[in-house]
Every structure is written in structure tokens, then in C-alpha cells.
Amino acid sequence: MFFFIVQFPDQWIIINYELSFTLVGSGTAGSVLAARLSEDADVEVAVLEAGPEETVYPNHNVPLEFFTLQNTEADWAYRTVTQKNACLGMEEQVMTIVK
Ligand SMILES: Cc1cc2nc3c(=O)[nH]c(=O)nc-3n(C[C@H](O)[C@H](O)[C@H](O)COP(=O)(O)OP(=O)(O)OC[C@H]3O[C@@H](n4cnc5c(N)ncnc54)[C@H](O)[C@@H]3O)c2cc1C
Question: What per-residue confidence (pLDDT) applies to 1?
Fold first, then answer.
């Protein structure tokens, strides 16, 4: 059982739906898996993606520009917890995690 929540300007609609597969994340693995699974016409697949449209971050298509996306919401801006024996040169011994 799966619930679609569709947002219109003045209302929300919740749709009950039976699906064969629900994939979370349409990155490399999720997209390939969704494409392969949906080759079977009897299978219904939903893919949920939390990230924005690719066009929001044009730099993300230019490999050498990847560093401009670090520590932004494009890479989820993850940081490590304070390290005990590593990141000794970093402020508070915390490092950003490039995604
Ligand atoms: C800068 C950079 C350059 C790279 N260059 C190359 C390269 O040249 N060649 C190569 O082979 N590999 C490259 N890689 C590695 C490659 O991108 C990754 O190994 C690959 O994308 C991992 O695939 P994945 O499906 O596991 O994760 P991802 O592709 O990261 O997909 C995960 C998806 O899940 C979504 N998500 C996360 N949380 C949620 C949630 N709660 N709900 C819904 N969706 C969610 C994310 O938005 C994302 O779209 C590069 C990686 C980086 C960071």
C-alpha cells in the first residue's frame, strides 16, 4: 500500500495506491533499478526523490565544478561528528562529507 500526496495550490489530495515496488532515491542505483523493474508491464514502480531538479545546480554537470557544490544542500551538507583521533587540523575536529 502506498499513499501519494498531491499538492494543489489550495488543497492536498491523498491517493491510496497499490504498487509492486517503491524505490527511495533516484540516483544512479535507484534510476537503473526503476528502469529495469518497469520493463515488466505487470509491475508498478514508484520512485521517491528528495533532491531538486538537476537544473537547480547547473554546475553539477561539470565535473571540475563539483567542489562548488560542497557543503551546500546539493550534497546534503553532511558533516562528521567531532573526531577524537582524526581531522586534527580542522575546526572542532569536524570534516564535511562530500556526497
Ligand atoms: C563529485 C563527484 C563526482 C563523481 N564522479 C564520478 C564519475 O566520474 N564516475 C563514476 O562512476 N562515479 C562518480 N562519482 C560517484 C557516483 O556519483 C556515486 O558512486 C553514485 O552516484 C552512487 O550511486 P547511488 O545510487 O548509491 O547514490 P546517489 O546517486 O547519490 O543516489 C542517492 C539518491 O537518493 C536521494 N535521497 C537521499 N535521501 C533521500 C530520502 N530520504 N528520500 C528520497 N530520496 C533520497 C538523493 O537525493 C540521491 O538522488 C562521483 C561522485 C561525486 C560526489
Answer: 65
pLDDT surpasses 80 at 33:
yes
Q: Give the distance (Å) from ligand 1 centre to CA of residue 82.
A: 25
- The Cα–Cα gap between 41 and 25 comes to 22
Question: pLDDT at position 16, please?
Answer: 74
Q: How far is the CA of 99 from the centre of ligand 1 (A)?
A: 7
Contact indicator for 69, 81 with CB cutoff of 8 Å: no
Q: Which atom of ligand 1 is closest in space to residue 25's alpha carbon?
A: 34
For the chain, the domains span 1-50, 58-99
